[in-house]
Amino acid sequence: MVVKIYGMASAVCPQRVMLCLIEKKVPFEIELVDLSKMQHKEPHYMAKQPFGQIPYIVDGEFELFESRAIIRYYATKYAETGTKLLGENLEERARIDQWIDVEAINFNPLVFPIVFNLFILPKQGLAGNKAEADSFAKRLSKVLNVYEKQLSKTKYLAGDHFTLADLTHIPTMRALVEGCGMSCILDDKKFVKAWWEAIRARPAVEKVLEFMESGALQYSP
């Protein structure tokens, strides 16, 4: 069954889902929802995603929105296919869930204003608020100190293996480090920097970038 992802391949939340499906070797296709044309706010779309956000997925008769819920679903559904992303026992799963929540609650809300001001607005020909971006970058640096402490003990966030805890960070980290040119935020955090380089180097990341650059709408392992 080919998973249908409603959204844009260039947006970070659909990328989170794409990365998971590629790691799990699950085929998918993009049903384009153009944010620039406000298609995510049209009534027929909001009937499926009532918050007017992307993505949502259709898998046969099953529909689901919220990218972190989607990646948890597919990591569980295809637990024995592709990369194991959920750990080996209940305790490992709990640690993975912990760091997925950390990303959603403590990391992403600080990264988004930086990306919005330094990448999204300039890309649209508009001036971003650098002072606001700098303020959020200082707060983010303190959060990354917590990551640094954890990653001084384990190679990845939830242990010594790549899991959803790491995967969920990739799209926003790439937007921050590469889109905004903010690699300097990692200069004094050697363990975070090593972790980022390790997860950035995963083949699934390159496949997502190739998919975006080609303008393709279908992926098959």
From TrEMBL:
Domain GST C-terminal, which positions?
Answer: 89-221
**Which GO terms fall under molecular function for this chain's record?**
glutathione binding; glutathione transferase activity
Q: Which domain of life is it from?
A: Eukaryota
- What keywords does the record list, in alphabetical order? Transferase
Q: Which InterPro entries match?
A: Glutathione-S-Trfase_C-like, Glutathione-S-Trfase_C_sf, Glutathione_S-Trfase, Glutathione_S-Trfase_N, GST_C, Thioredoxin-like_sf
Q: Which SUPFAM superfamilies match?
A: GST C-terminal domain-like (SSF47616), Thioredoxin-like (SSF52833)
BP GO annotations: glutathione metabolic process; response to herbicide
Where does the record place a coiled coil?
A: none
Gene Ontology terms: cellular component = cytoplasm
* PANTHER family listed in its UniProt record: GLUTATHIONE S-TRANSFERASE F12 (PTHR43900:SF54), GLUTATHIONE S-TRANSFERASE RHO (PTHR43900)
Q: Which family does it belong to?
A: Belongs to the GST superfamily. Phi family.
**Protein's recorded name:** glutathione transferase
